[in-house]
Amino acid sequence: MAPSADPVSRIVIENVAIATVDAHDTEYACGHLVVAGNRIESIGAGRALEGLQNVVRRIDGTGHLVTPGLVNTHHHFYQWITRGLATDHNLFDWLVALYPTWARIDEPMVRAAAQGSLAMMARGGVTTAMDHHYVYPQGSGDLSGTIIGAARDMGVRFTLARGSMDRSVKDGGLPPDFAVETLDGALAGTEATIDAHHDASFDSMTQIAAAPCSPFSISTELLRQGAELARRKGVRMHTHGSETVEEERFCHELFGMGPTDYFESTGWLGEDVWMAHCVHMNDSDIAAFARTGTGVAHCPSSNARLAAGIARVPDMLAAGVPVGLGVDGTASNESGELHTELRNALLINRLGAHREKALNARQALRLGTYGGAQVLGRADQIGSLERGKLADLVLWKLDTLAHASIADPVTALVFGAAAPVTLSLVNGKPVVEDNHLITADEDAIARATRDEARRLAQIAAGA
User: Could you give the CA distance from residue 310 to residue 313 in angstroms, rounded to a whole number?
Assistant: First the structure.
């Protein structure tokens, strides 16, 4: 091969097991991957071709597995500073217990919480993060801007689902009156966030979705006009759906129909929509999601923590519903990690009707990578290791005591203990090296989150 004249810098990883998670689940027991700039230039068996110029780093991947970076599809960063509270509550009681505290958040609290949430995900292999932020107390500052800034500083790809609530306690909702926006204020805030921050380019690091919170906290008009706004602006749409039996009852009592039919009546099914949880879905609901291409963010740990139930993920996948994984807020998943959700998704779904045939290791890995890219609308850019795609990838160390006797690397990653991250690249740039963040000071973030959690608790106690 003639030496390349292209001046772009290259990173070469060789002697490594590779799970591409492409359409054919192509894997290489011992292969190579070349990153040129922010793109994957080549991938295959054996060593990389000779003659590559501007190789700034050459990595021997012996004992490692390289996969696409993990993609988180549902989270609430602000909850980082209320971890460990209401630990024995179901969803409704948990929300009632915590909303009065959440309603007191401000910009410094949200920044610290975003840094904590992002740091835990990034050091565990997440390269694309997502936050559904919907609490905007009056006078709390630029919360959307500070969350986006935290993700930019961390160096991860990011989707902010700009949430909103306009149904408070006085209207039969759950949040306090001063924690919600007006209909017009919510729509205006969402549009302003889209205009200021949404980047639709191929290698975008920041995208915005329109994301009214849930049927318990939003009016029908906010749903309808939110969908119209999102489609006029060309952004995706996100909300909570079919999370609990109480939600099912609430929708029937208030709207005369179940959650899926209600969402469809307001324009909230479609290829540009994904919903969190979707635990209580009947056959008709799943068929509607499959027919419309509506996606699902599966949050197994949070669903278990709040006793919501087991989502019918195997049935969704069989029907063709796009499904990704979500951490969910760290007040209902205190670990804040997505790589542990690969294992939890597999194990919890095996407790359901399909038992041992519910999910296998490779299906779980696909949920956390390509499935997440699908529901975020970025499957042509991220989620699999293919030539021309963005260089978002993770090099997992699997030759330690924790995994040494498991022959298959994908099985080791999913079934085994959480694997250390030797290297994580986002857009071709290192974010994690040798299991430590290089884009942030973990100790400083820990101190800041402790301080802000203490301050929030003091404010809430004196309210």
Answer: 8
